[in-house]
Design a protein that fits this description.
five-stranded mixed beta sheet, wza like fold, single chain, disordered C terminus, alpha+beta, Outer membrane lipoprotein wza fold like
Length: 303
């Protein structure tokens, strides 16, 4: 009986050891490459078990890499892994090798600088040797200005692809490193949109759409503008909105919005909310006078 129990325990131990070794023996999946090869990049091509075929070659302007025994192989716009597979296929097609194993590494980038322009503290070109997260690159340029739009555009080096990225105030989103800026890329930070509080506000002026969502509602702008004094008539407020052929004017009830009687409204860039000083003043004021007041408003007065 003891021997039988011993054999059972031994078998369980061996099975558990086998499962453990199998689990740890499995290779972790490799992270997908994101850096693309571009014209002018210097590559190191290595072929397993054929050191005499190791080569250092620079990608030509038309995206080809000239290789001994193979001639030109087009690899621009691919990752190093993709370039290696393309060379392997060519080696097989030319019957140079039956089962080649090729590795490609970028030794030197043609353009190691990343250009950051627009609404950053220090626009310019910054040297990077490898792909960096968007937030890191913006940090090199001193970060966003108070009037920056959080929707930035990345222009890929080599492919010309344009990628949109939102710089969030949420740390979990901001520190997401899934999108990288590559050497040679360009990063554009545009100016944010503005909405205007005109008339009888405590702090009239222009207000930047710079919050985490890049948008403001009428009540949010009312709060930023310090509310309205007792001389104002918020029930007679007007929304002036730019259209394709001019401006449209809509009466809005700010008083009812404040009381929760009607829903708040989302503002668009260049919207103007005008609050009259009194009912008589409201009658005497027309849209042309409101637009003139908008031209004189302090744009970007409040971040």
């Amino acid at each position: 009986m003891k021997n039988s129990n011993y054999r059972i325990m031994a078998a369980l131990v061996i099975a558990l050891a086998f499962v453990t070794l199998s689990a740890f023996g499995q290779a972790a999946p490799a992270a997908a490459e994101s850096i693309l090869i571009g014209a002018g990049d210097l590559l190191h091509i290595q072929i397993f078990d054929a050191p005499e075929m190791d080569q250092h070659a620079r990608v030509t302007d038309d995206g080809n890499v000239p290789l001994i025994f193979l001639g030109n192989v087009h690899i621009a716009g691919t990752t190093p892994e993709g370039a290696a597979r393309a060379i392997e296929v060519r080696l097989q097609q030319r019957e140079v090798m039956r089962h080649p194993q090729v590795t490609v590494a970028i030794e030197q980038y043609a353009t190691q600088g990343v250009l950051v322009i627009g609404q950053v503290a220090h626009p310019g070109s910054y040297q990077i040797d490898t792909a960096r997260p968007v937030l890191d690159v913006l940090g090199l340029a001193g970060g966003l200005t108070e009037v920056a739009d959080r929707k930035v555009t990345i222009l890929r080096h080599g492919t010309g692809e344009q990628i949109q990225y939102f710089v969030s105030n949420n740390p979990e989103d901001a520190f997401d490193h899934s999108l990288l800026v590559h050497p040679g890329d360009k990063l554009m930070v545009p100016k944010a949109g503005v909405v205007y509080a005109l008339g009888d506000f405590a702090r009239p002026g222009g207000y930047v759409l710079s919050n985490n969502k890049g948008q403001l509602t009428a009540l949010q702008m009312l709060s930023l503008a310090g509310g309205t004094p007792s001389s104002a008539v918020p029930s007679q407020a007007r929304l002036i909105r730019k259209t394709g052929d001019g401006y449209s004017e809509t009466r809005i009830q700010l008083s009812d919005m404040q009381k929760g009687k009607i829903p708040d409204i989302l503002l668009q860039p260049d919207d103007m909310i005008f609050v009259p000083f009194s009912y008589l003043k409201n009658i005497a004021t027309n849209s042309s006078q409101i637009l003139a007041a908008a031209g004189a408003a302090a744009v970007y007065a409040v971040p």
